[in-house]
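Blackboard transcription, Thursday session:
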Amino acid sequence: MEKYKIIEIKESIFADNDREADRIRAGLKAEKTFLLNLMSSPGSGKTTTLLRTIEALEKDLRIGVMEADIDSDVDAAAIAKIGVRSIQLHTGGMCHLDAGMTEQGLRELGTADLDLVVLENVGNLVCPAEFDTGAVKNAMILSVPEGHDKPLKYPLIFTVCDVLLINKIDVLPWFDFDLEKVREYAHMRNPRLQIFPVSARTGEGMSAWTDWLRTQVEAWTKA
Amino acid sequence: MEKYKIIEIKESIFADNDREADRIRAGLKAEKTFLLNLMSSPGSGKTTTLLRTIEALEKDLRIGVMEADIDSDVDAAAIAKIGVRSIQLHTGGMCHLDAGMTEQGLRELGTADLDLVVLENVGNLVCPAEFDTGAVKNAMILSVPEGHDKPLKYPLIFTVCDVLLINKIDVLPWFDFDLEKVREYAHMRNPRLQIFPVSARTGEGMSAWTDWLRTQVEAWTKA
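(Written on the board underneath:)
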C-alpha cells in the first residue's frame, strides 16, 4: 500500500476554442504566414532564445513577435530594441492565451506582410498547453536547471508540442540533469517530439533548431 | 512612441473563495495547526527545499505534507520515503488549488495531531497566486537560473507572499543573477516580504529560513 493517498480534484472545461483555432490557421495559410507558439516555464530563456532565433532567420524571413505577459512589457521592449515588429499582449492576470485572444493579437500586429509570427506565451507549463492558439507548430523550452523529470510532472505540454528545446546546456556540469532521461520521458509523452539541446547564451546547438524552423516555415508558406 | 502596442485582454473572475479560506484558517487555529502554502515555478526546487525543511524541523514539530500536481506522484513519493505523512492532490489539469480544494486535502490528510502542514502547490507563478488557500502564510521560491526580473513579470505572487526563498545560490557564479536587483524588485511589489537566499542542495542559508518558520508556527499554535 502507498503511504499517501491520491485524490482526483476536477473542474469543468472549455467551449469551441478548437474550431476558432482551425479558422485562424486557415487564414494564416491563405496569407502565407506561419505562426509559432512558444511556451515554457518562467525563466527558461524564451526571450533570449527568440532573440537568437530572429538573428539567425531575419535575412530569410519577415518576422513579427507577439509577447504575452501578465502585465509587464520587458520582453516586447527587448524585441523592439532589435528592430523587429512586436506587440505586447497583457492577459490581465490570466495564465494562457486561447485562440480568440491570439486572434486579437494577430489583428493588432498585422500579418499580411510577415512570413513568421512568434507568439511568446505566458511563462507557464500548465495552462498554455490546454489551448490551441491557432499556431501551425507548438514549441516549448525546458531549461537544464528545471530538471529532467518535468515530462513526468507536466505531461500535457510535452504531448501538444512539436519541438522541445533543452536550453542552458552550457550549465550542464553544475546540475543533476540527465539528457538521456529527459529524452526518454519526453518521448514517452510524445514519440514524435523533435528535441534540440541548445544554449541560447553561447549559441551552441542553435543552428539545428533554426534550420528546422526555417524548413517548417518554407513548407507552410510555399505549399 | 513605443515600437509595440499594449493590449489589455480581460476575463471575468471568481466567487466566494476568500470567505471559505477564512473559515479554513479559523478551523486550523482552533486545532493549533499551521498551514504553509509553498509556491514556485516548475523546477525551482520546492520538493528538495521541503525535504531539507522537514529535516530541520521534525524534531520540534509534527509535520504533514500535501503535494499538489497535475497528475504525477513523484513528489509525494519523495516525501513519504522519509517517513512523513503525505498525500498527493491531483488537480486534473488545473493550474492551482483554491480554498475548497485545499480543504478536501486537509480532511484527507487529517490535521488534528499536526503542528505544521505544508501545501506544495502546483508549479506555476500565475494561477496559485490568485487563490487564498486558507494558509496562515504563503511562501514562494525563486531559483537563481530563473532570473532576477521575475518580480517584474509575475507581480501578484510576490505581493501575496510573506516569504521569498531565493534558491540555488550555489550556482550564482554561472548565471547573470543580481541578488540586490531581485531584492529591490521584490520589495517594490511587497515591502514586507522576508527574503532568504538559500541552497537547498548544499544547506547554505537554510537555518535562517527554518528558524523563521519555526517561530511562525510557534506563534500560531501557542497564541
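Lecturer's comment: Chain B has eight helices and eight strands.
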